[in-house]
Design brief:
The chain is α+β, with helices and mostly antiparallel strands and about 600 residues long. It is about 65% helix and about 5% strand.
Amino acid sequence: MLQSLIEFSNSWLDVINGILWHDLALYVVLGVGILFTIWSGFCQWHALTHGTAVIAGKYDRKDDPGAISHFQALSAALSATVGIGNIGGVALAVALGGPGAVFWMWVVGFFGMALKTAEVTLSMLYRNTDNPDEPHGGPMWVADLGMRKLHPALAPLGKALAVVFCITLLISTVTGGNMFQAWNVAEVTATNFPALQNAVGSVVDGLPDGAGEWLRPFVHARSLVGITLTVLCALVIIGGIKRIGAVAGQLVPFMCIIYLLGSLYVIAVHFTEIPNLFRLIFESAFSTAEGDKAFVGGTAGYAFLWGMKRALFSNEAGQGSSPIAHCAAKTTEPVREGIVAGLEPFIDTLVVCTLTALVILASGAWNRGPEGEFQQPPKVIPAAEGGWTLETAELPVRNHVNGTNHWKEGDAIFVILVSESNPITNGNRHRLTGKLVKQGNGLAVQWDVHRSEEPPRLEGPAIYTDYVGAALASHAFDLVLPGLGRWMVTLAVWLFALSTVISWSYYGEQGVVYLLGQRFVMPYRFVYCVLILVACLGLVRSDQELDNWSSLGTGVMLFANIPITLIFGYQAMSAYHSYLRRLRAGEFKPTH
């Protein structure tokens, strides 16, 4: 019964998310970014110049209302955006959109700087500083107070928009900002360090009869990860935004530097190829040809679509989440924090995401060669549920990759089929994926189904490992220095995910404050921490289930926040240009 209910809800969520995340919605968000870029007179320049001076503390004043410094506010917002999406999401964009996706990520990151500046400035204009040490702000306050200010008759509409935003904010918080992050950390850790699972299993086996069997489903490597994350998160969020800001101020620079060093090592090894890589990125962004080898995709349209999707998901421009963190900054000038916020997409998308993309491209992981070849290629046969699949065939010896030449249960693989036109690439090549499962004393491939009217043809005997998301980034590091990906990506996933969980806890907290009041904050924090553990106990079957709910939340957040930003955008731009005039006139003197 429960399983049927889960499948039913997932099917409906797929339909709803297909509407919320239609390509048109992405074009609208990009268009709003272009609008504010022109309206502000290219505010990106001031984010990189004046914004840098502000986060350096040159305009900080201790007696200004707010809880944290400009630098801490930016770090708290970045710790929420710089997450697993910067590794796995970018890898997915390059794998499906090709090198050209990187160019379109840059474009979206650039215009996202303007959108972020506008939405944060707007939230700062309406933030509540009645208690200077516990300020409250975000799109919910803009909708509520802004509509009431426009006309009293619009107050119910503003309240309704605010409530919808807060509800979807909480959905995104507990799924995408919390459980999705924890689940991925548990999966990556358990996969990369199987000895940990063996050690835990040995401990459970040593327990008295009955106790071990009862605990076995809940005590494993993933649950240890969940307990660790839960404790670390609780120690931080119990102290509120001041402790979150302080931890983020230390954690974000550290994790970015660690990832930067690992990425620069890979780039340095392939230094002579960098000019060619940038040429490849620009050429592929407008190319109509698909890749060869393992790569299927990458035409201009698909590169544009995937580059835009991953950039928007990564830097959260237009979603209205990060203004909540920025509204905690100590300042009397709303625009000043808005300009600082413009740095967020620059760091997240134009720096961190670019590093991941260059590692994948420089290493050749995106368009790699086969890891084995069938001696006797499997035949194409009709699938029971319609379409076409492959017969079971003996697995070939695996090429020596990343220190191993053995296939293992659970490995995902794929072959290339030649079939009817691929609408994604305008070519005729398709991937057919499969998963290795136990069969007797060996392994067999459980092939997926290819949908086409005519039977497809196997392109050749080549068989490839299907590296999905963060696994592709890990593989890219390992191709340059075996073992680097295993440690680098695991460490990065831990740091990125922990920082995201911490900052999103504050976003959800502000939604609770608006809906229910301050007295419900501590119960909310307790439930939030418990959900971290729940995500790692094995009760969640896949990241797709969590992604369905988080996509619903962020999708509705966009639908609520973008109209708010457009309706009141003139106020943000008026304040922005007024601030720049005063800045040029020398009204603002650096404090040091």
